[in-house]
Each structure stands twice: as C-alpha cells, then as structure tokens.
Specification:
The chain has 10 helices and 10 strands. The chain is α/β, with parallel strands linked by helices. Helix 1 links the parallel strand 1 and strand 2.
C-alpha cells in the first residue's frame, strides 16, 4: 500500500462525510483512510458506514489531544509508505493521488504540501474568505502560489511525508499551534526534500462565519510566534507585514487629525490596494459581490493576523 490518508476530526461529522465521499471517487485507489476522532462529543463513527465497502477505512476514537498528536496516533496505526494529511473540511479532486504520486516519483520528494482552492459550489462568503487567505494581495503567495516550490511551508490541511521522514524525525511536536509549520521547517533542516505540489490542490471550506474567520487569523499570528520556540528563524519579514498593516490602520485616525497630507496619502494607497483586490476577486469568481466582500475579509484577515502576532510576542516577552 502506497498512501495512508490520516484525518483528525473533532465534532465535524457532516464535513467528514463529504471528505470521505470525495476520497471514494479517486482515480487512484491504492490507499487506506485512517480517521482519528479526537475526542468528539458529536456522533462521528456513523458517517463512515456508507463508505465501508468503498474505502479501506479504519476508525479510532481517542481522548482529545489536539490535531497534531491525533495525526501522530494515526501514523502509528498506518501501513502505507507515505502519509497524507487532510483536514476534515476539505474535498479532494478525483485526480489528486495520481498527480501526487507522479510528483513524488518524478521530483524525488520526501514530503509535500499542496494549495487550497475554492469550489464552484462554495458560498459567496466562502469564496471571499478563500481569496483573503490565498491572494498575493494579502499573503504574498505563501499559501500555495510561490514561484519557487522549494521555499514552501506545508500546511496541515493538505500535506504529507514519507515513512522514512517519520522514522528519522518523529511526528508533530505540538498539538495544535502551527505544528504543521514546525515539522515543515524540521524536515527541510534535516535535508529532506519538501516542495509545493501545485497540482495536488484541495477544495478547502473556510470558517463558516466572520467571528470564527477572524479568530482563525488571530491564531495564525500567534502560532507563527509559537513556532519560534522550536526554530529561532521561523519569523521572516513577510510574516511581519500584517503587523505593519495593523499599525497602518491604527494610525489612520491620528493622521486624519494631525497631518491631513499624510492621511490623504495613506487613503490613496489603501484605496488603490482595495481596488486591486476588488478587480482581482471579481475577475476570479465572476462576481462583483465577492469582489466587495473580499476587501472586507482581506482587511480583517491581515489585521487579525497582525494582532495575534503582536499579542503572542508580547506574552512571550513578558514570560522571558
């Protein structure tokens, strides 16, 4: 068996069913699926019943330990030579494993990460969230649009590594705080080849409301600082841009009062950036509504990330 698909899940039974359905429709069939129920209080196991004859399924219910350690549990139970991790809110295109296997063999990969995309049936809000999380106007392409695939850091919703990597490095070190970024850095530092596989994308459903979306952005900022506990060079210049954007927003009211010329310049660049987002998002999703919503979610995502980054850095500094 070549692939072992490991899915940690916590109280998301309906999403899990959709993910399993997409896995049952894959063109390439040489894989097993290991579902690790990370202490869910909602019934999850019943969602597997319709797929027992369609997939090589294994289900384990464990106490809540966090998704990183739940993945480690799944690895210990796996029989494949290459482990693939998906979040339960993903849907997998049917050619995914064919494309991934070709990339691994042709490029000599030890580990990979894939991008996320928006499906046609996503809501307008989900499409706007997707744009905010993946656009060059917000993240600089670090979530799946890098020109140099070797600089990519894999994310847990769509990533994988070989059994050899696990045997030499071990699994995830943190339960739920940028554990995917930490292991990506560790894999590269050990000399293994981890790259972005652009064609191995998944449809990733975003948080279903604004509050949870902002909370996620805030946690992403905190997690980037958290990774520096393990890797001192984890924070790059690009990760500080959301913090600078947050400062930009904070000082807008002050410059409007004390320096009208600077305020006008700030508003010009903010307007230009917003217009670029509007045009880009509207063109991608063929919707002016998504274009307008993308501006709102892009501002929110960057500000939340910047606030999370500064908050965690302050906490870390106070603790020494």
């Amino acid at each position: 068996m070549y692939f072992s698909v490991i899915i940690p899940v916590f109280n998301r039974p309906e999403e899990l069913a959709e993910l399993l359905q997409s896995l049952s429709e894959q063109d390439y069939k040489d894989f097993e699926v290991i579902v690790v129920d990370d202490g869910s209080t909602l019934p999850t196991e019943k969602e597997l019943i319709p797929f027992e004859d369609k997939l090589r399924l294994n289900y384990f219910h464990i106490k809540n330990v966090g998704q990183g350690f739940a993945r480690n549990f799944g690895i210990e139970k796996a029989r494949g030579q290459y482990f693939v991790f998906f979040d339960s809110d993903c849907v997998i295109p049917k050619s995914y494993f064919l494309k991934l296997k070709n990339a691994i063999q042709n490029r000599g990969l030890d580990a990979h990460g894939g991008p996320d995309a928006s499906s046609e049936d996503f809501s307008l809000e989900q499409k706007a969230m997707d744009f905010a999380m993946t656009s060059i106007w917000t993240t600089g392409g670090i979530r799946g649009k890098l020109k140099n695939p070797g600089k990519f850091q894999a994310r847990g919703f769509n990533m994988g590594f070989s059994r050899k990597v696990f045997q030499e490095l071990g699994g995830f070190k943190d339960p739920n705080r940028a554990e995917d970024i930490e292991i990506s850095i560790r894999i590269k530092n050990a000399g293994f080849k981890l790259e972005l596989v652009q064609e191995a994308f998944v449809y990733h459903k975003r948080k279903n409301n604004f509050k949870s979306f902002v909370r996620q952005g805030f946690n992403f900022g905190r997690n980037r600082v958290n990774v520096s506990r393990f890797h001192a060079n984890a924070i790059k210049v690009v990760h500080l841009l959301p913090f600078l954007f947050l400062l930009f927003l904070i000082f807008l009211p002050l410059t409007s009062i004390f320096h009208s010329g600077l305020f006008q310049l700030q508003m010009f660049f903010l307007g230009l950036w917003s217009f670029a987002i509007f045009l880009h998002a509207s063109a991608i999703y063929k919707s002016l509504i998504v274009g307008f919503m993308a501006i709102f979610y892009s501002v929110s995502q960057l500000a939340a990330y910047g606030f999370g980054l500064s908050y965690e850095y302050l906490i870390k500094s106070l603790k020494g």
